[in-house]
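Two proteins were folded this term; both appear here.
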Amino acid sequence: MVVGLVGALMALAIPGIHYVRRGVLAKKARADLEYLATAVQQLVWDTGQYPYNQDITLRNRGLEVWDLTSPSAGLIEDNGAYPDWQGPYVDRILLDPWGMPYFFDADYKVGRVNKRVVGSFGPNREGRNKYDKDDIYIILD
């Protein structure tokens, strides 16, 4: 009888634990994004430029940086493209709690309006111009 009662309590607790864990991971992502948003703003104040993708083969050149650790992002190192660069603006950029790089997007859809954001693709890890409900982002404008 005791084993059955413990099993029933565990069955009730497991979904709650999952919900709490998901909330903790989202808070961690938001804290990381606040840090990155401050770094991006400092880059803009020093250089007059947001992070941008310098790959000329991309059609939407400059609108997204899918990995903020890349040299073209300008946060960790200067690849020569940022005048008056005074970084590094961050010492390192970690992956989000779901194992994906944080991103910068200059035309992220918030409602029907494009905004500059730093973000995470969230728990479903789906992104790159797929705007869904579980994305976590901070608006820079």
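Next, the second protein.
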Amino acid sequence: MKIALIHYWLVNDRGGEKVLSEFARMFPDADLFTHVYDPDSMPYSIKCMNVRTTFIQKLPFAKKLYKNYLPLMPWALRRLDLSGYDLIISFESGPAKGICKPPQAMHICYCHTPMRYLWDMEKDYAKNASLLQKVGLKLFLPALRKWDLWSATQVDHFIANSQFVAERIKRIYNREAAVIYPPVDVAHFAAIKRDPQDFYLFFGQLTAYKRADLAVEAFNRLGKKLVVAGSGEESYCLKKSANSNVEFLGRVSDDKLAELYSTCRALIFPGIEDFGIIPVEAQAAGVPVIAFRGGGALETVVEDETGIFFDEPTADSLMDAVERFEAASFNPATCRANTQRFSAARFRSEISVFCNVTALRGEKEPHRPFLPECRDPARPTSC
């Protein structure tokens, strides 16, 4: 079979790229298409592939300003010549699935999430956008939403990275999705030996939706030590608001992260993630998690066994959860055992079964009509 993989952009090695790396190992002869590619930021498994870019790659400062070219990406995708491919696998959290699918091809979309900035979180993104980005979002949002709904009709099968995302796919696209959790290197983190010290850890990108501000406010008031590892546009404001008991490390190395997992009391996870690899990594290292009750954490953290939830996105609710955590006890072995269901071996097995048993038999899910509130009467029926 001739296989094409389509990824939105390849400029950072994060969760989406880790999923792509597993597909690259499974299908090393596949061709990889993307809008923007920075090989210096990619792991060896991706750099070994035949990578092809759209015209977005040639635009000024594309490796840094790629999100500013979002309105052009639908056009770039439709210019891709995918004739001759038997299996097309797209990866969505940025524009990737809106290709012109050859009639004979099977198109599977592994969806990390429908694009947040088009649907559920456009207001959150607008708060931190530049003036030019805000104007562009206001001008192009209706057209991009219509295109996104149309692009879902080019997909034969959706795979969601969590039940939380599967429900969003159903609500936005009115399509069913199989759930296959992304791969986590649980064996690597399981080798970390626990020696807890008297501090809590927040680890992740410091952007608004990660809600590091809740963690800082709660620990300011508790007076307990919080270590914040990560960088992002929220760094300055968070540091300005933090008391002396909150320590900022910026970006940390893998060795430093292992040390933090080894010695922290618990991971603080106050945001809503589509899946959330970090809580799984922490549990694999034997670290319990204090998480907001929402998103993918509900599928990865077992309440009162591997962590504790708080119900309101407030500092008071998080403070209460920390107090309840300190009155309970958690077994590192239980935390580690919980993460085996997210291993890379399990992921490869489930993807292989899905591709071979479901998709390659030629079964195609009937395309559903758009939901009434999203319907576009003039939508195109073909490229």
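The two ends are 24 Å apart (CA to CA). Residues 13 and 249 are 20 Å apart (CA to CA). These notes refer to the second protein only.
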